Amino acid sequence: MTLRQDGTWRGNMVRAFDDLVADLSSEAEVEPRCTAEEMALHLGIARARALTRNRPRRVQETVGDLPEHCRDFDWHACSDMLFQDHDVLMLFDNSLEGIEDSDSHVNQALGMVNLAAQDWFDPFDPEQTRNPNRGFRQQ
């Protein structure tokens, strides 16, 4: 569903990743504010999980100097703590084709929001909208 999106959409998706990085860098609470940020966070967790499995030495070199925590590398706990729900992951379920359509019976029954690609950047809570003038990453 994202393959057909244009450069503007992709730039907004990059900005969603950057917004999460900025939150982490400032030690702000990381809480996805829109579907794009949820997807970015899910993709980041999946990548981190894969790296710990496939490149453990590289991971150790990268995080070895950080203080240890009992929940290090507990990706299930990480996922549970960072998301209110996992609705966005239903987009990967072929049996739920069309669930992103707000007119879908399943979408309506489950009270899903912003799953259509054009809605990914709409904030879940208008009071937590990011500054629209924050700009984009420069190449």
If you had to describe this structure to a student in words, what would you say it looks like?
This protein is an all-alpha fold. The protein has one domain. The chain contains five helices and no strands. The longest helix is centred in the N-terminal third of the chain and has 20 residues. The mean pLDDT is 89.
Topology at a glance:
Layout: H1 7-25, H2 35-54, H3 56-63, H4 75-82, H5 105-110
Give a brief description.
With 139 residues, the chain is mainly alpha-helical.
Structural class: mainly alpha
How many H/I helices? 5
Q: What global shape is seen?
A: globular
Question: Which sequence of SSEs, written as H and E, runs from N to C?
Answer: HHHHH
Total beta-strand segments: 0
How many discrete domains?
A: 1
> How far apart lie the N and C ends?
26 Å
Unreliable spans are none
Main beta-sheet strand count, sense and barrel state: none
Helix coverage percent: 40-55%
Strand share of the residues? under 5%
Identify the notable features of this structure and list them briefly.
mainly alpha; 139 residues
